[in-house]
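agent> Task received from the user: take the single chain below, predict its 3D structure, and emit structure tokens. No templates, no multimer pairing.
agent> Plan: (1) validate residues, (2) run structure prediction, (3) serialize to tokens, (4) report one or two observations.
agent> Step 1 OK, no nonstandard residues flagged.
tool_call: predict_structure(input=
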Amino acid sequence: MAVVRIEALRGLLRAIKCAVPELEARICPGQAPPDKERVWPHLNVDLGRLRYAPDQASDHHDPGGDRLVVNVGHHQGPALLRLGAQTLGQRYELEQKLLDLFLSQDAPGILITPITSAPELGTWVVEWMLDDDEWQDDRAFDRQFFSVITLTVTIPALVTRCGVHTINDLRLGLADLGAVATPSTFGSAAEVVRINDDGTLTPL
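)
tool_result: status=success, residues=204
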């Protein structure tokens, strides 16, 4: 889960940097360290508590060997974007660009970020759904204006299973319907074909 969660967060940061270049070097994943000098404007991006919703396991990616990446459901929960600026105008402008990132999608309010940065897990997508936003002006006298945008993130639950048996040679044998199915009856089947990867049959 750690790798999937980190790569999901990185995917969102890439999308934000592309849409709001003014925040290129001013985004902090999670809370900024207390000893780090705060720059203005800035954006904190944090994932909240994610709940796991199980689903029937399905093959997701085959990295080769005896390993297989399987999708077993998804994790879902809140994500927060906390934008800080020193003027109202700056906050309005940057906040609107952040909102436009979500509202300009084919499905307004839902940002889909494809993740290709973890080849060992294959390619997957993360869904970021816009929930609400609010202004926080309790520190206006210090020239600190904040906007908090709340999202709901859905991240696939990917696990790697080892020791997976693979099928290298799949054959179909047609024999007498009255015969008992044993290895010997398969060997003496009236017709045996190999089922190829593309679904075609090769007589043997």
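agent> Step 4: summary for the user.
The CA atoms of residues 32 and 38 lie 8 Å apart.
agent> Done.
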